Model the fold of this input.
Amino acid sequence: MKTFRFLLAQYLPLGYAGATLLGLLCSIGLWLLAPKTAFAQNPVQRDPQALTILAQTIKAGGGQELLLSILDFTETGTITYNWADSVSRDITVKSRGLHQFRIDVDLPKGTRTTVVNGESGSLKDEDGQTRPIYRQSANDLGSFTLPYLPLIAAMQDSTTSIVYEGLVTHNGASAYDIRFQRVYTKRQDPHGNRGEREARDFYIDPKTLLITAIFDRIHFANGQHDAGVSHEVLYSNYQHENGITAPLTIVETVQDVTGFTMKLSQVTFNAGLADSDFAR
Done:
């Protein structure tokens, strides 16, 4: 069990400890028994309909010029872990660009700190023990609480496929499903499945044009036949903050098991965060 918790900490640095462990164990067991899928490399696709919807989403979020003017932001609020007693604690979120991110949670025995700087990161528990964060999770945490920035970056990246998957029913509501998938060269991706493993689906409300969820898969092993387990971040309670439409309620789930619920109450943009704020 200790080894399993260590593994989850690397892949779920924000919510692993709060997830219903039995539920995750059962879900991962089912994943191990699931049919395996083979993947192949594909050329870059830039779906015009997807790009049109994304442009509308960026406009709804405040507009590309204003969003790109955000150099850093700080948020405060509470986080409720899905423990037996549903513990709620104060939280501070700091973000700078796409590759610097920090969360501090006040726990009874100390502060639990998650830091991402570049493509790597670490988790320091309240007892002082530090463990690494897997690269995929570190990449996912960039601008975790403000999802417009990775969306814009993907649109500006000519090696990322952007595909309109249709108007679907997701979590009981209609949503546009748009998939982002990086395309690698054969040298970068000899097995031809790296892009598929890193792919993310953005779900967008067709009425408000705001992002309601980002879905991807967590992979616990290297190999062509690792289908992964489902991982999702849900966004709601959008509020206007200095011209930006920001989500103030964020929920993380793994295999439909809730890990945590984050409720933010204050957002400050461009406070002048420095590299030292994200030191590990």
The CA atoms of residues 200 and 216 lie 5 Å apart. Helices lie at 2-11, 21-33, 48-61, 64-68, 135-141, 148-155, 194-198. Residues 48-61 form the longest helix (14 residues).
